[in-house]
Amino acid sequence: MVATVQIRPNRTQPRRNFDEEELKSLSQSIVENGILQPLVVRRINSTEFELIAGERRLRAAIMAGLNKVPCVVHKCSDKESALLALIENLQRTDLSMFEEARGIARLIRKYGLTQEQAAVKLGKKQSTIANKLRLLRLTFEEQEWILTANLSERHARALLRINNPNLRREVLSRVITENMNVSETEAFVTDVLMKKSSKPEEPSEKPHRKIAVKDVRIFVNTINRAVDTMRLSGINAISRRNETDDYIEYTVKIPKAAETI
């Protein structure tokens, strides 16, 4: 049994968002039944442990008021700990498509793996790994729009057929506002590309059309996720939100010391 205050989160954790309702449900289950599967940790000094697997269980246990949690202490190096944490989390089915893609990219970059080697470690096909990594060609803003609109990975892959980022954002906006399913999105992308290929190249100085996404939650979530990402990276970013009848105002403060991180 390890005190919860002695357990540090693992910085290689690919998950950046935890569903609050799911955590509450798990917390209630822990109150009723206890923690059925121990967390996996490693000792980093005489008083602290680093989490390898089980962050949802740890968060839910803290919500349930537990001061100690059952753990399996695994002997491993820094590199092995990070690798195990990445692999354990990437094998879960409830990561978002982009969290999974970023985790795979981090795994390959940090440990110098090929796509084939990463596929073996994760128990996936090499083609699956390649398709996941392609999703990162979408901008962070596009990723946020896709997640907020609850679009699928097939939606995202269809959009990747469009190389022009401005055209792709315009198409994505239409897909969201018209609530297109996957088949409709694929057909729309094909139609757009066919029309584009039949038109002469437009002058480069022509201003781009502005894209209107009516749901302001997309932009609010983008700000929240950006601040969360900074905090998880060790940057003590502070955000304040002020909402009136007419507007939403955000103030984000980032310590100057963070510039060197």
Structural features, described:
The chain has 261 residues and is α/β, with parallel strands linked by helices. The protein has helices at residues 20-33, 55-63, 78-90, 97-111, 115-122, 126-134, 140-148, 153-159, 165-177, 182-198, 217-232; strands at 2-3, 7-8, 39-43, 49-53, 68-69, 71-73, 238-243, 248-253. The model has no long low-confidence stretch (mean pLDDT 81).
- SSE run: EEHEEHEEHHHHHHHHHEE
| Shape, principal axes of CA atoms | globular
Question: With helices defined by DSSP (H or I, 4 residues minimum), what is the helix count?
Answer: 11
Please tell me how large the radius of gyration is: 22 Å
Supply database-style keywords.
single chain, 261 residues, two-stranded antiparallel ribbon, 50% helix
Q: Which SSEs are present, and which pair or pack?
A:
Layout: E1 2-3, E2 7-8, H1 20-33, E3 39-43, E4 49-53, H2 55-63, E5 68-69, E6 71-73, H3 78-90, H4 97-111, H5 115-122, H6 126-134, H7 140-148, H8 153-159, H9 165-177, H10 182-198, H11 217-232, E7 238-243, E8 248-253
Parallel strand pairs: 2-4, 3-6
Antiparallel strand pairs: 1-5, 3-4, 7-8
Helix pairs in contact: 1-2, 3-4, 4-6, 5-6, 7-11, 8-10
